[in-house]
Amino acid sequence: MDHLEHSVRRDFFSGRAQKQGRVYQQQSGVQINTDSLFLANLTESADATQVSLPFTAVGVAEVTATELGVHHAATGVEGDLPPYVGRQIDADLRARIGRIPRTGEPILIVGDSTAGKTRAAFEALKECFSGHSVFAPYDGQDLVSSLPSVIEHKDSCVLWLDNIERYIGPQGLTPQVLGLLRRARIPTLSTMRAGQYRQFIPSVTPYTSASNDESDNLGRRILEQINVMVLPRLWTPEEIGRARKVDDARVQGAVAFSTHYGVAEYLAAGPRLYQEWVLAWGPGINPRGAALVAAAVDCVRAGITQSVTRDLLVSMHETYLARVGGAASRPETIEEAFEWATCLRFGVTSLLMPATEHPGRFKVFDYLADEFMRSNSSQPIPSNSWRSILEFAKEEKATYLVGLAAETNGETEIAEEAWRESANRGSGRALLHLGLLYINTDRENEAVEAWIKAAETGETSAYASLGIWHRANGDTVRAVELFRKGAEGGDIFAIRGLAESLETSDEAEQWWTKLVEMEDDVEDRYNLAVYYYRTERKDVARENYRRAAEEGMVAAMNNYGSMISDDDPEAGERWFRAAHEGGSQQATINLAMALADRGERVEAEGLLREAAKAGYYRANSILGALYIKQGKDDLAQTAWALGAENEDEWSIYNLALYFEGEGLDCKAEELYRRIADFNDDAAENLGFILAKQGHSDEAMQFLERVRGQITPKGYCALGCIFYRTCAREIAKTWFVAALEADHSHAGCWLGEMAFQEGLFDDAERYYRESFNGGHGHAADRMSYMMVELGKGREAAHWLRLSKGLPPLPAKRAQAARRRRGKKKR
Q1: Fewer CB in 10 Å around end: N or C, the chain?
Q2: Could you report how far apart the first and last alpha carbons of the chain are, in Å?
């Protein structure tokens, strides 16, 4: 699914160059250098003029930085860039470039406007591809139409996609096209502003009541295939140190302001332009021009990524001008305002940049919009501006992104209207968003209807949303059917939903494996490892955890460490430490326990205290256990009490267990009750306490729930407790359960109960079963019963057995009986 709206009106040309020419992108425009250019075959539809430009790759040694989108410096000769100062991503960038012949991995550098990402990419291009040519397509259609030529020259051509969002679309860069570039091992260098990246990644969310995951769209799907490199706006101390050594006045001037701005940012004059705009609002300065810029900034905030018309800015700007007093601010004329906003500053750019591809249109300088959103994100866009922008987007057939921005800004009605407009033109992705909007406004039937329509348009991601909805409503069978439809169409979210729903079945393995093959994504490999672990295939699980860990996934580091720590404690500890440093709280616990096991209690306790202080209160339960081992009961109670105050389940359990051991059943009961509904161990212990107190009925409520985890010895203990509290029938059921589980001691109790009730045959049967199971005391009780019944011979027999003596031999017993008979006569 595509994140961008692509039915925007544009003017294009098709033609041929008589001699060798050059085509390249510069900022938002296109420049064509030829000796002679003939234009022909100009065709126009009602909405747009189509274009095809010839494939023209330029030698890397010949191309200049500004041709590929690098901003001019703030001062100096035009085209003369300051010396390049190495950035923190350079080594990793070159390492990834080195892997392209093997992996085809595309490169994407993300950073704020003028953070230096294009310059960093250009320097890597010059160093790593000096003998190649570089091709910078005009737009997505130009990229696709030139693919045959790009593939033909794949061993000597680099694809340059500065501001990659300009190329994404159904007729341009799609996940399939990106996959083709990867498989063909085409070197692809691209950049993207952080603001645009943030719009893509959280923008499309499939409905889910549990995790609220985002639904599919082209932009997101493309970006999720790329391991992004982030270039921060502010420079690191190491970068600043390198910059200080550069013998260039412009660089040295930029370093002086590096606390507030990135060096590349300053050199591109973005901050000074922003400052000039802020200061222009004063009476008699340029308040009308500042209002025009504010209107253009809000167009970007509202999702209009392309240039806008003069008429739109004029119609919108009065609202912003009114904020500073309107006519009382002595505004300049509209012509003067446009002249001020569009004139070049510092030999770099202007506040409003005229769109070369659309005469009469304008686009605000990127830095201004980014900086305003950073520092004024809470300032709402005026309601009448939303309406003007939406009407403009309708004319441009570009309502989809306006809907995204409106939803982000809480303008639900605008978002719904925008997406309805896109949906009426057949946009499946708009229908997906409408479905989510309906879900969030308690209109589930409308949501399902929207997703069904989206699926009918061929938007396979709709099956994932429908599947998630049905699964959340308990219809797993229907959910699997829908996930399967989406999965068969290649939708990643549907495949993931299907694999999750199939749980530990053999088919689930096939889909998790397919995801790994399709995406080569570390999270999918991690999920595959989890699957193998749950299906008791520990060796395969360990291998996949290892690979995910080596790719940098923190959770995999912890799990891999856990799986190898028994055989290789040192290696396990290293992975725990790496995961701990990566922010895994569970790894912190595991590392502390590993340290404690080898006697490093000081560091272990320090880690646990640090984790608890940071809000991971489970650390208190482990910390208390360490104190108990050292005989520091008071410290253990304090640690567990702190965890219990913050509702840590195992701190509550350990503190209750401690109180129970000290005979403080009332305190233990209170704590067990807090967690008994979801903690079976607490429920079992609470049941024992209640049984001892004589609360048989309530005790049984908890004990029956956890019967399956109670040991045979526990059954017998419960029988004893209920017997002593006169709940004899309940006691009997537990004794029977214990005896059936081969706990022979229970037979002795059952025999005693039967004897007391006069059920002598039952008593004898139970005593015999208990004795035969190895419980010698049953023989003593049997002897006692036989005495009471007047059966001396049997009593003697069982008495000998109770003392471990063998029974009398049969002949000896007969002789003894004869002697007794003679004596009586």
Answers
A1: C
A2: 110
pTM: 0.55
- How high does pLDDT run on average in the chain? 82
**Interacting residues of 762 by C-beta distance below 8 A, sequence separation 6+:** 750, 751, 754
**Bridge partners for 652 per DSSP:** none
- pLDDT at position 237 is 82
Give the model confidence (pLDDT) of 149-171 as tens digits. 999 888 899 999 998 988 988 88
Beta strands in 251-329 (DSSP E): 308-309
Q: What is the DSSP letter of 44?
A: B
| Structure token digits, residue 108 | 């994407």
How far apart CA 479 and CA 500 sit, in angstroms, is 11
* 448 HSE (CA, 13 A, CB side): 11
Q: What is the mean pLDDT of residues 26-46?
A: 34
Q: Give the span between the Cα atoms of 699 and 516, in whole angstroms.
A: 49
> Is residue 822 packed enough to be buried (19+ CB in 10 Å), middle (13-18) or exposed (0-12)?
exposed
Q: For residues 795-809, give the mean pLDDT.
A: 79
Q: How far apart are CA 220 and CA 488, in angstroms?
A: 20
Could you tell me where the beta strands, DSSP code E, fall in 151-199?
157-161, 188-193
Closest of 372, 230, 241 to residue 302, by C-alpha: 372
Question: Largest alpha-carbon pair distance within the chain?
Answer: 148
pLDDT score for 254: 63
* Cα 171–Cα 173–Cα 179 angle in degrees, nearest 5: 125
pLDDT at 749: 87
Sequence letter at residue 759: L
Residues with Cβ < 8 Å from 616, sequence gap 6 or more? 585, 588, 589
Q: Where are the alpha helices (DSSP H) in 489-597?
A: 492-502, 506-519, 522-534, 538-550, 554-564, 569-581, 585-597
- Return contacts of 596-600, CB within 8 angstroms, 24+ apart: 596/626, 597/569, 598/569
Sequence-distant (6+) residues with CB within 8 A of 648 are 617, 618, 620, 621
- The percent of the chain in helix, strand and coil, each rounded to the nearest 5, is 60, 5, 30
3-state secondary structure 759-774: CHHHHHHHHHHHHHCC
Closest CA relative to residue 732, chosen from 771, 741, 698, 721: 721
Per-residue pLDDT tens digits for 358-395? 788 998 987 788 878 877 766 899 999 999 999 999 99
